[in-house]
Every structure is written in structure tokens, then in C-alpha cells.
From TrEMBL:
<feature type="binding site">
    <location>
        <begin position="21"/>
        <end position="25"/>
    </location>
    <ligand>
        <name>ADP</name>
    </ligand>
</feature>
<feature type="binding site" description="in other chain">
    <location>
        <begin position="213"/>
        <end position="215"/>
    </location>
    <ligand>
        <name>ADP</name>
    </ligand>
</feature>
<feature type="binding site">
    <location>
        <position position="103"/>
    </location>
    <ligand>
        <name>Mg(2+)</name>
    </ligand>
</feature>
<keyword id="KW-0021">Allosteric enzyme</keyword>
<feature type="binding site" description="in other chain">
    <location>
        <begin position="125"/>
        <end position="127"/>
    </location>
    <ligand>
        <name>substrate</name>
    </ligand>
</feature>
<dbReference type="GO" id="GO:0046872">
    <property type="term" value="F:metal ion binding"/>
</dbReference>
<feature type="binding site" description="in other chain">
    <location>
        <position position="154"/>
    </location>
    <ligand>
        <name>ADP</name>
    </ligand>
</feature>
<dbReference type="InterPro" id="IPR012828">
    <property type="entry name" value="PFKA_ATP_prok"/>
</dbReference>
<dbReference type="InterPro" id="IPR035966">
    <property type="entry name" value="PKF_sf"/>
</dbReference>
<dbReference type="GO" id="GO:0048029">
    <property type="term" value="F:monosaccharide binding"/>
</dbReference>
<dbReference type="GO" id="GO:0005945">
    <property type="term" value="C:6-phosphofructokinase complex"/>
</dbReference>
<feature type="binding site" description="in other chain">
    <location>
        <begin position="169"/>
        <end position="171"/>
    </location>
    <ligand>
        <name>substrate</name>
    </ligand>
</feature>
<comment type="pathway">
    <text>Carbohydrate degradation; glycolysis; D-glyceraldehyde 3-phosphate and glycerone phosphate from D-glucose: step 3/4.</text>
</comment>
<dbReference type="InterPro" id="IPR022953">
    <property type="entry name" value="ATP_PFK"/>
</dbReference>
<dbReference type="InterPro" id="IPR015912">
    <property type="entry name" value="Phosphofructokinase_CS"/>
</dbReference>
<keyword id="KW-0067">ATP-binding</keyword>
<dbReference type="InterPro" id="IPR000023">
    <property type="entry name" value="Phosphofructokinase_dom"/>
</dbReference>
Length: 319
């Protein structure tokens, strides 16, 4: 192993830069040449590749987004596109590849592994929807971003005695809604894994008003969707003014939290170590507070395990 490449793919996540920094500096510390690849698999196919040194990753650990940029690439989903990517890696003398991204990015790394590329994945996604790891890079920062928004919305919601429905990201995984719902004291968490009953929701709100509640916060995961429609239904049933807020891509941005910086740094270093050890087709994760790794096929075959305990706890604490 003489030369490794690193790319970020799919949706950006806070902490990606910290992971890039760790890959570059760990690689150089082990005597490797490190090549950065712009715009994910699209940049790989197009040869947007350049050598990185220690200064390339100076002053980036605190920055959100990714200095390597990211892009979707339809061409890479084809056999011809993947073959081209493999050839480009050979042209640049890249012996191993670190891929930072989510499920789709990992499936790209999986495909390259089957074509003989030594590839290791780092989970970079705010969704926290990769089953093999307890936490993904960017999830903690997204939670804090949402929590800050909840605190601000609560102020105005309480002043006007309103119901506020806050829609958060996460695709078909409800972790962002669930975790921030507990941390933000939401009256109800609505997630794809459980769905909801409109009558039960309205009953909770009305009972809360009778007890003297000045406001109601409802966290809605985008996998359920329809914050505006739900707000209209709730207002019609309860007679209480209801507003919806869709936080959107604000959740992906911002300076990464200390947790995400440390997680990304340790995962980045471990990814390089795995390549040096001759291990490929692996993904780095965290289990029980310790950095771990797993075969990429096994990791992608696992189903995300819903945290039933936390969901039940959110129901208990909301009353």
C-alpha cells in the first residue's frame, strides 16, 4: 500500500472534514501518498484527483460540509461507469480508497470492492440509519442543531399558546426526531417506525391544555412527512392554532460538535490502518463506545434496529 485516495459522497454531514483530515494526516504519518478526489464518484470517474499534504487539511476540523465537495453520479451506477472508475484509480496509482458517506456511498464502495479495489467506508450521514454502527458522523451535530431550533420555537409557541409541528430530516429513520424529541421535551414524537393515530395525538394535546399546558411541541420525521397537512388536521380537530416548521437542510450544516469531531477523527485514522493492514471491503463504526469494523456486505445486509425503549420513554416523559 503506497497511495490511498479519499472521497466524500452523497449528502454532506458535519464532521466529514474532520474525517478527511484524519485520513490525510494518518496516511502521511505512515509514509503513504494521499490523493483527494473531488465530487465523490463523479469526480473519480472524471479524474478530479490531486495530491494532499498536511497543509491541505489545515484549519478544517471545525468546518461543516466537505472540502472535497460531493455530488450524485448516475454514471457510477452503471457497470461501464464503475469500470471506468477502477481504471482511473489505476491510472493515478491509487492502491486503496476511503469512502466517507451513507448507505448509497457504501454501496458504491461495495461495488468497487467486488472489482478488486481495496475500499474502506466511514459512515458520514446525519440520518444515523446505518445499522452496524451506533452513531454516524454528523448525527450528534444535527441533533444539537434541531434542539437549538426547538428551544427557539418553544419560546414563540408558548407566547401564542400554539401547537408547533417541527419536521426534521432522517429519511426513513426516525432517530433525529426521537432523540431531539426526548431532549427537547416534545409532547409527541412521530416516526416512520411507529406511525401515529390522529385521534390519539389530538387527545394528548387537549388533555395537556386542560392541565394548563401553554404549548405543544410535536416532532415529525420526514419519513412520515406532511407537516403542513398534519398541522391543518390537528387545528381542525383541537381548535388550537397550529403552525408547522420544516427545518430542512439547516440540519446538515454548521460546525461539528466535539463528539462528531472525535468520532470522525478516530474513524478516519482507523480506516487508513485497515488499508495498511491489508484489509479491504470493510466499514468503520462504533459499538459500545469503541471503534470497530465490519465486512461491508454484512454491514449493508443488517436492518436498522429501532430503539423501542427510547420511544416508550418519550411517551412516558411527554405527559
Amino acid at each position: 500500500m503506497r497511495t490511498i485516495g479519499v472521497l466524500t459522497s452523497g449528502g454532506d454531514a458535519p464532521g466529514m472534514n474532520a474525517a478527511i483530515r484524519a485520513v490525510v494526516r494518518t496516511g502521511i504519518d505512515h509514509g503513504l501518498k494521499v490523493m483527494g478526489i473531488h465530487r465523490g464518484y463523479s469526480g473519480l470517474i472524471n479524474g478530479e484527483i490531486f495530491e494532499m499534504d498536511r497543509r491541505s487539511v489545515s484549519d478544517i476540523i471545525h468546518k461543516g460540509g466537505t472540502i472535497l465537495k460531493t455530488a450524485r453520479c448516475e454514471e457510477f451506477t452503471t457497470d461501464a461507469g464503475r469500470e471506468k472508475a477502477v481504471n482511473v484509480l489505476k491510472v493515478f496509482g491509487i492502491d486503496g480508497l476511503v469512502v466517507i458517506g451513507g448507505d448509497g456511498s457504501f454501496r458504491g464502495a461495495q461495488a468497487l470492492s467486488k472489482l478488486g479495489v481495496a475500499a474502506v467506508g466511514i459512515p458520514g450521514t446525519i440520518d444515523n440509519d446505518l445499522a452496524y454502527t451506533q452513531y454516524t458522523v454528523g448525527f450528534d451535530t444535527a441533533l444539537n442543531t434541531v434542539l437549538d431550533a426547538i428551544n427557539k420555537i418553544r419560546d414563540t409557541s408558548s407566547s401564542h399558546e400554539r401547537i408547533s409541528i417541527i419536521e426534521v430530516m432522517g429519511r426513513n429513520c426516525g432517530d433525529i426526531a426521537l432523540y431531539t424529541g426526548i431532549a427537547g421535551g416534545a409532547e409527541k414524537v412521530i416516526i416512520p417506525e411507529k406511525g401515529y393515530d390522529l385521534n390519539e395525538l389530538c387527545r394528548i394535546i387537549i388533555e395537556g391544555k386542560i392541565r394548563g399546558k401553554l404549548h405543544n411541541l410535536i416532532l415529525l420525521a420526514e419519513g412520515v412527512g406532511g407537516a403542513n397537512e398534519l398541522a391543518s388536521k390537528v387545528e381542525n380537530v383541537t381548535g388550537i392554532e397550529t403552525r408547522s416548521t420544516i427545518l430542512g437542510h439547516i440540519q446538515r450544516g454548521g460546525s461539528p460538535s466535539a463528539f462528531d469531531r472525535i468520532l470522525a477523527s478516530t474513524m478516519g485514522a482507523r480506516a487508513v490502518e485497515l488499508l495498511i493492514e491489508g484489509k479491504s471491503s470493510r466499514v468503520v463504526g462504533v459499538q459500545g463506545g469503541k471503534i470497530s469494523d465490519m465486512d461491508i456486505d454484512e454491514a449493508l445486509s443488517m436492518k436498522h434496529e429501532f430503539n423501542e425503549y427510547l420511544y416508550n420513554l418519550s411517551r412516558v416523559l411527554s405527559y
